[in-house]
Amino acid sequence: MKFAGSVCLIIVLLMMNVANADIAAFDDLILSPESYWNGSDGSGGFSSGGAFFSNNYDSTYGSWDGFSYSNITDITTSDFSAQYNAITGSGQGGSSNYVVGFVGWMEPPTITLDAPGAVGGMYVTNNNYTYYSMLNGDLYSKKFGGIDGNDPDFLLLTITGKDSDGSVTGTVEFYLADFHFEDNSRDYIVNTWWFVDLTPLGVVTSLEFSLSSSDVGAWGMNTPAYFAIDTLIMEPMSVLSGPYTEAGINGYIGADRRHAAPTDVNAVINPIFCGWAASVVNYNPAPDVGFQWSDPNKALGPATGDNLDIISLGDPNRQQLDASVTPGFITLSFSEPIRDGNGYDFVFFENAMIAAKSDPEVGITAGQMFAELGYVEVSSNGEDFARFPAVSLTSAPTGLYGTIEISKVYNLAGKHPNANGLCTGTPFNLGDLADDPMVISGLVDVNNIMYVRLVDIPGSGDFYDEAVMQIDPNTWPDWDYYTDNHPIYDAWVTFDSGGLDVEAVGVLEEQNYSADINLDGIVDIDDLALFTSAWQSHLGHPNWIARCDLAEPKDYVIGDGDFAVFMSQWHKIETWRDK
Predict the structure, then answer these.
(1) How does pLDDT run across 119-177, given as a tens digit for each residue?
(2) Domains held by the chain: number
(3) Domain shared by 535 and 502, yes or no
(4) How many Å apart are CA 578 and CA 269, to the nearest integer?
(5) Is 245 domain-assigned?
(6) In sequence order, what are the residues at sequence separation of 6 or more whose Cβ sits closer than 8 angstroms to the Cβ of residue 138?
(7) Shared-domain flag, residues 18 and 114
(8) Is residue 534 predicted with pLDDT exceeding 50?
(9) Cα–Cα distance, 217 to 104 (Å, whole number)
(10) At 12, is the pLDDT very low, low, confident or very high (cuts 50, 70, 90)?
(11) What is the C-alpha to C-alpha distance for residues 478 and 485, in angstroms, rounded to an integer?
(12) Would you list the DSSP string of 430-499?
């Protein structure tokens, strides 16, 4: 089955549970400044991050195909001599090294994993030679779009997963250039690093890469057959982590309606949002918050994805906690009430970021999140607040720079990444408060929420979740609640901009079609890929995706009833999708 490509890192993180992922970032490969490796040593490839990258070098002609690696920063050279240049001028996130793939005549560029496993995804961009060929045309290739810009040109990268028997597990497609749009202003040639979700491929042993183009001639494709990749995330098949795999909500989307970096010229605010926090009711930070991080108005309005555009709540140290210093908090109000509609109701954006490299000495694990967590509370009258019942399964202190596995955290603010080109927020469903005493008594009306309060949690272990209000995944198949609450750990003690940082709180449109699992406004093949990947799983199973539990009442199992709901909503479109 063929699945469309995705540029949303959050499904990667949450389906793959990348706590112990291998990440091929390629900075372990040794290069002199402004140089490249193309296989001329006859080694047949190279290894990085738990994978082998194929290379075929012909010493007779000095040619190669498969994969090379480079650290060249020149982004202006446009001819064949720039075949080793990524158009970004650096690796993803500003790193030095990146990999260039070339689809030649011997065999397709192939990545072989050290052990079978799932691949979360990778970053992709064009190289100079291909980019400028499409942008301007050259002796052999046409200018994409043609003279008037109306030609429906494309360059398509296809990644094929194969298992240990060589059988195809699936394919993922990603457009390195796409001129299919009726509005020519939406046509694009990729010139930044875009994340491609590879989770639909399932458990694989290898990945094969191919290119296709609209510009073909008698000898095949005219467009130079190059692409560049970086930061490949791989998850060993046997490594599983926490049960809370809900995906973050994209703050911005691109022309393909998938996640886009807020700085992308074609990015727009996700139409699933219908409102944002409008005013600050009160702001009471813990001591020692830096002046730069203490403007509460930065919590208002839409998410920006700028990890410096935040207000900090502070992070009390041990001495302050022992002196009963209150953790910081902020209360925000909204111009229109938040209601308990179908699906998620609002989203919190912090500035959490993903660790690219491991450093065991300071508690950093590649693929995990540097997160500063907080409680979330809501109110109808500004006086009585109901707190979302949270779960935190991080078992030990992380230290000042420590990271956490986000699939072990539920209903806490600050779980999802919102930095370095990723802009996603943590969703909350007011239905989770149905058993809260404040809601039962009527003091909090979940259909008339006017206030959201965010409270920092010092990650010292002095503060606890409310796990006893939630189902324990380990009680399958009889299902029962956790017997104990758990201490909450995150990076502590932090300083200056320490503690929970608030970037934005957004209100969501009602989601009338629960089978729109990836929340892009339509029930389509992408949702089917997610649903089938979770088929017959249950809460606590490694393939579990909570949004695939469609049938009411929820039974924490993905089965026939859920499939019936999915098919009844096939190709349904949300009214907000095209607003």
Answers:
(1) 888 899 999 999 999 999 999 999 999 999 999 999 999 999 998 888 898 899 999 99
(2) 3
(3) no
(4) 12
(5) no
(6) 79, 132
(7) yes
(8) yes
(9) 16
(10) very low
(11) 20
(12) GGGGTT-HHHHHTSS-TTSEEEEEEEE--TEEEEE--GGGSB-GGGTTT--B-SS--EEE-S-S--BS-S
Q: What are phi and psi of 54, to 5 degrees?
A: -75, 155
User: Does 112 map to a domain?
Assistant: yes
Q: What is the pTM of this model?
A: 0.65
192: exposed, middle or buried (Cβ count in 10 Å: 0-12, 13-18, 19+): middle
Q: Is the dihedral of CA 344, 337, 259, 153 positive or negative?
A: positive
Element (H, E) at 131: helix 128-136
Could you tell me which residue, 253 or 367, shows the higher pLDDT?
253
Split at pLDDT 50, 70, 90, the class of 569 is: very high
What's the distance, Cα to Cα, between the start and end of the chain in Å?
Answer: 31
Q: Contact, 344 vs 508, CB < 8 A?
A: yes
Can you give the CATH number for the domain in which 550 is found? Answer: 1.10.1330.10
Nearest Cα residue to 374 out of 416, 436, 320, 422: 416
Domain co-membership, 536 together with 471: no
Clarify whether residues 194 and 231 are in a common domain.
yes
Q: Which residue has the tokens 């399958």?
A: 476
pLDDT attached to residue 115: 80
Q: How far apart are the C-alpha atoms of 141 and 134, rounded to whole Å?
A: 7
Sign of the torsion formed by the C-alpha atoms of 317, 319, 322 and 325? negative
Shared domain for 146 and 218, answered yes or no, is yes
Of 159, 150, 157, 154, nearest to 134 by C-alpha is 154
Q: What is the pLDDT of residues 279-323, one digit of tens each?
A: 999 999 999 999 999 999 999 999 999 989 999 999 999 999 999
pLDDT in tens, 175-200: 999 999 999 999 999 999 998 888 78
Query: Taking Cα atoms as reference points, which of 93, 87, 50, 49 lies closest to residue 70?
Result: 87
Cα separation, 14 vs 109, whole angstroms: 28
Collect all residues with Cβ–Cβ distance below 8 Å to 566 and sequence separation of at least 6: 515, 523, 527, 528, 531, 550
Domain of residue 188 covers 2-236
d(CA 131, CA 189): 7
